[in-house]
Amino acid sequence: MAVSESEMETQEEVKMNKTVFFGGLAIAGLAAGVASAATLDDVKARGSLNCGVTTGLVGFAAPDANGVWAGFDVDMCRAVAAAIFGDPTAVEFVPTTGQTRFTALASGEIDLLARNTTWTFSRDTDLKFDFVGVNYYDGQGFMVPKALGVTSAKDLDGATICIQTGTTTELNLADFFRTNNISYEPVPIETNAEAQQQYLAGACDVFTTDASGLAATRATFEVPGDHVLLPEIISKEPLGPLVRHGDNEWGDIAMWTLNALVAAEELGVTSTNVAELGAAATDNPEVNRLLGTEGELGAMIGLSADWAKNAIAAGGNYGELFERNIGENTPIGLARGLNAMWTEGGLVYSPPFR
Amino acid sequence: MSDTHAQTVSYVRDTMLPQQAPPLTEVGVIKWIRENLFPTPLNAILTFLSLFVVYWVVSHIGPWLFNGIWNADSLSECREIRNATLGPDASAACFAVITERWPQLIFGFYPSDAYWRPVVALMVFFVGISPVLFDKLPRKMLIGTLAAPFLMYMLLWGGSIWGPVVIGLGFVVGLVGFKYLAPINSLLATLSAIILPILFWLVLAGPIIGVLNAIAPIGFEFIQSKDFGGFTLSVVIGIAAIILSLPLGILLALGRQSDLPIIKYSAVVFIEVIRGVPLIVWLFTASLLLNYFLPPGTNFDLMLRVIIMVTLFSAAYIAEVVRGGLAALPKGQYEAADALGLDYWKSMQLIILPQALKISIPGIVNTFIGLFKDTTLVVFIGLFDPIGLAGAIRASTEWNGIYWELFLFIGVMFFIFCFSMGRYSLYLEKKLQREHR
Amino acid sequence: MSTLTDPPRASFRLSQLIYDTRYRSITIQVVAFILILAGFAWLINNTVQNLAALGKDFNFGFLSSAAGYDINQMLIEYNNQMSHGRAALVGILNTLLVAFLGCITATLLGVIAGVLRLSKNWVVSRLMAVYVEGFRNVPLLLWIILIFAIMTESMPQPNQFRGAEPTASMILGDHVAVTNRGIWIPRIGFTSSISGNESVAPIDGAAPLATGGLDWLLIFGTLALSLITIRFVRRRSDRIQEATGVRPKTWYQQVAILVIPVGVVLIALGVTVVAPYLKGFNFIEGTHLRNSLIALWIALSLYTGAFIAEIVRGGILAISKGQSEAAFALGLQPGRTMSLVILPQAMRVIIPPLISQYLNLTKNSSLAIAVGYMDVRATLGGITINQTGRELEGMLLLGSFYLLLSLVISGALNFYNRSTQLQER
Question: What's the fold here for domain C58-134+291-425?
Answer without folding.
Answer: MetI-like fold (1.10.3720)
